[in-house]
Amino acid sequence: MNTETLIHDLALQCRPVKPIGSPIIRFLRWASATILLLFVGVLIAGPKPDLWNAISEPSFIFPAIGMLCLSLISTMSAFVLTIPDQRKHRFNAIPISVVFISVGIIASISIFSDLQGSNPGLICILRVVCLSVVPALLLFYMLRKAAPLSSGLVGLLALLGTLAFSEFALQFLCKKQFWAHILIWHFLPVFALAMIGIIVGRLAFK
Amino acid sequence: MWTTTEANKLDSERDQRLASLLTAAQQGDQVAYENFLNETTVVLRRFLIKRMELDMVEDVIQETLLSIHRFLRTYLPGRPVGPWLYAICGHRMVDHYRQKRRIRRVEAEVDLDDLSVVRIGQTDRSLDETALDALKKLPSRQRRIIELLKIQGLTVKEVSAETGMSESSVKITAFRGYETIRKLFGLKA
Fold it and tell me: Tens digit of pLDDT for each residue in A147-197?
């Protein structure tokens, strides 16, 4: 088929379309729905008994704020990337840098600290995954409606954002509130599982 | 690779004209859309000729036009068209290079005009039956492509025209079919 024929055929298929909303609006919609979903998830699973005392501890505040920020930045980046615009390359680097820095911190703490007392926390991984399912499906659906040209990267950012948000919610559930446990059984699984997003993105945004 | 300064290569007058055509196209104006695509083709051709081998340019233009059609709703009215257009085109260019590289690797591994890859260890008499049995086990799309290529003897170009798939897709689908046949014959893929 030559280009002129293709153009003519495409023009004949032209139908009114509603321009997609701004990335910020779409992000806020997703974030509102996710907060609601996670709130319900935390209520169903049952928040930890000493929650009111725990939230004033640094071992609660710093991981929670860190993961919340990472989630918001990653998800926002994913939404921005689904609007084709070559000027946004620098925006991609933020969450990727955060991941590398976080992995670096975990690695250095693992080398220099005694992490024997991290306490196994497979249930924490399971909870993060369960809490992430619906927000992740919603996010991938919303991103798919736009133009995720860098499918692997968008998938990675989307899954990282969702898992990080769920980890934030997990802070309200997990009774083991000490650094070694949080680093090994909360942070590390989030980063490891987020890598699956590359494959999921490539499949979902084909 | 394209750079951020490419956005400036669309002069503001042309960008505004394209923006108004694109906005009209989003409202279903077929004439405006055809004009937009025609003018875009000129812009893209100029952009791509500097960056690619000439025989690839038309393929990438067509792939970009198809992507523009698919992603029409992602243009936000009021924004410049240039960055949107070049972002789509840039990705299609990279995809095209990746696909070409994959095809070259495939062609190096498999001679598309010879099914001898499956003949190792088979007698000629049993080959036809065994090959046909293997063919039946393939997914319908791979089976159809291999039938057209090997049984009806069509060229890749003719198969492409017959099926409406691109030549690259025909080659890739055939290669996947050959790989499956190899596995069925117990050969290393």
Answer: 888 889 899 999 999 999 999 999 999 988 888 888 888 888 998 999 999
The encoded tokens of residue A118 equal: 């991290």
CA distance B121 to chain A (A): 37
What values do phi and psi take at B82, rounded to 5? Answer: -50, -60
Say if CB B82 and CB B13 are below 8 A apart: no
Scanning A46-57, the segments in alpha helix (DSSP H) are 51-54
Distance CA B9, CA B47 (A): 9
Cβ atoms of residues B87 and A29 within 8 Å: no
Asked if B74 is an interface residue toward chain A (Cβ–Cβ < 8 A), one would say: yes
- Direct distance between the N- and C-terminal alpha carbons of chain A, in angstroms, rounded to an integer: 23
| 0.90 surpassed by pTM | no
Q: Nearest 5°: phi and psi at B135?
A: -60, -35
* A67 vs A171: CA distance, rounded Å: 10
Which two structure tokens, joined as six digits, stand for B35?
């004009």
CB A175 within 8 A of CB A53: no
Q: A143 to chain B: which residues are within 8 Å by CB? A: none
Tell me the shortest Cα–Cα distance from B8 to chain A, in angstroms: 11
Assigned token pair, A13: 């298929």
**End-to-end CA, chain B:** 34
The domain ranges of chain A are 26-81+89-204
- DSSP for residue A173: T
A10/B65 Cβ within 8 A: yes
CA–CA distance from B45 to each of B38, B42, B81 (Å)? 11, 5, 16
- Compute the distance between CA of residue B32 and CA of residue B20 in angstroms, rounded to an integer: 9
Tokens of A165: 């948000």
Which residue from B62, B72, B83 is facing A6, i.e. has the nearest CB?
A: B62
- Write out the two tokens for B126: 């049993």
Residues A7-58 have pLDDT tens digits of 988 999 889 999 888 889 999 999 999 999 999 999 999 888 888 888 888 8
Which chain B residue has its CA at the smallest distance from A80's CA?
A: B74
Q: Is A79 exposed, middle or buried (0-12, 13-18, 19+ CB in 10 A)?
A: buried
- Tell me which chain A residues have a C-beta less than 8 angstroms from the C-beta of B59: none
Q: What is the DSSP letter of B147?
A: I
